[in-house]
Amino acid sequence: MNFNMPVPEDMDMVILVLARKLADVEREKGQEDAETLELAERMGVLLRLNGDYSGAGRHFEMVLAARTRKLGPEHPETVAAAHGLGSALHLSGDFAGARDVLARVLDSCERLLGPDHPQTALSASYLAAAYTGLGDHASARLLLERAFESASRVSGPTHPDTLQAAIGLGGALLGLNEPKEAREILSRTYSACLNLYGPLHQGTAAAGKLLGTALLDCGEYSLAAKRLAEVLGPLKAAYGRFNPMVADVLTDLSTALSHTGDHQGALDSLRAALPASVKSYGADHPTTHRIAGKAGVIMGATGVDPQKARRLIEMAAEGLERLLGKGEPDAVAFRLFLDALRKTYGPDRPDGDKGGGAAGRSGAGDKSSAYADLLGIHDA
User: Fold this and answer.
1) Architecture of domain 241-380 in this structure
2) 207 touches 193 (CB < 8 A)
3) What does 159-175 look like in DSSP terms, one character per residue?
4) What pLDDT does residue 20 have?
5) Which CATH code is given to the segment(s) 1-92?
6) Distance between CA 173 and CA 159 in Å, rounded?
7) The two domains 1-92 and 241-380 share their CATH topology (first three levels equal)
8) Under the phi-then-psi rule, with left for phi > 0, alpha for psi from -120 to 50, and beta for the rest, what region is 30?
9) For 81-149, what is the HEC assignment?
10) Where are the chain's structural domains?
11) Residue 350's pLDDT band (boundaries 50, 70, 90)?
12) How much is the pLDDT for 253?
């Protein structure tokens, strides 16, 4: 059950050629022929790597159904197809669906291969990622601790499977608000990834990103800023600058820089995070509103442009309250900061004079343009 495949350099061309071959073979031999299913599975992997998670899921689902009928649910090729489907569901944001599929995969791996087989540990790591997506960090931790211990014992402390489990375990510990323990694990893991993969590998970037968050949560702001800045370039190279991980790193970097007194650097980080969040999550998303609101807080606290700061914070608070309710913690904090700004700089301008242009628009569909105008950026 080989769940990993190398990434082709010219992905779009490879997918196009494979799609033609798959259509020809399916027409000649039928949908449930072994060669058809092998090509369809490979297509699912390539589509997943290319970011087409729904397309990948459709191919894996077709292969899974056919292999279940022909080979049975416990056959290794059937289990591999189920893993592919679970991975595609997870990446598409269907964490509950991914959990259900990947739980069956793990159960099959344990029966077919044993609890200490490397593939079983890898399956546990994928299931844990689904639990993390659902916010069930405790279940994720149990799975990842088992996977980490098994991989360490069988493959060694610096094997890729061990490092993958360690990265996931560090993330789960952060979700459980245990940053000191996460820092210890992630510090070792980041160093091991640097030695094994180098600084530009996705695994190194993921470990560095989580280590930066752990350092931030531990109050080690200067070191957090250093680590987060280190991984930002590799993350952009691996995923592009409009990626949710890039947005998360920039947001954490802004917080670290603010605590070190580098308010301009913090504001610049949020200006870069906003377009990444808009393109990853959408303009009317809590993450996007939080980024804009934090930028407004920095602008207001440093006196850069109090009027624009108030408009940013007000729009962000309104968005969070509409999406998550009046008691949302960040919205409450933004409202309190708005009150402080009004005491310092006087009341807001009339509704018709809140910065002009796009800055005066607050509808959900206009958030992106309004935020971009207020922050002086042009690619959101």
Assistant:
1) Alpha Horseshoe (1.25)
2) yes
3) SHHHHHHHHHHHHHHHH
4) 94
5) 1.25.40.10
6) 21
7) yes
8) left
9) HHHHHHHHHHHCCCHHHHHHHHHHHHHHHHHHHCCCCHHHHHHHHHHHHHHHHCCCHHHHHHHHHHHHH
10) 1-92, 241-380
11) low
12) 95
CA distance linking residue 62 with residue 64, whole number of Å: 5
What does the alpha-carbon distance between residue 301 and residue 46 come to, in Å, rounded to a whole number?
47
Residue 256 has pLDDT above 90, yes or no: yes
Digit-coded pLDDT (tens) for 178-215: 999 999 999 999 999 999 999 888 889 889 999 999 99
Distance CA 1, CA 87 (A): 14
> pLDDT by residue (tens digit) across 3-60?
344 445 577 888 999 999 999 999 999 999 999 999 999 999 988 877 788 899 999 9
Question: Is residue 333 classed as helix, strand or coil in its secondary structure?
Answer: helix
> Using CA atoms, how far apart are residues 209 and 355, in angstroms rounded to an integer?
36
Q: Where are the alpha helices (DSSP H) in the chain?
A: 11-29, 34-49, 53-71, 76-91, 95-113, 118-133, 137-155, 160-175, 179-197, 202-217, 221-239, 244-260, 263-281, 286-302, 306-324, 329-345, 367-375
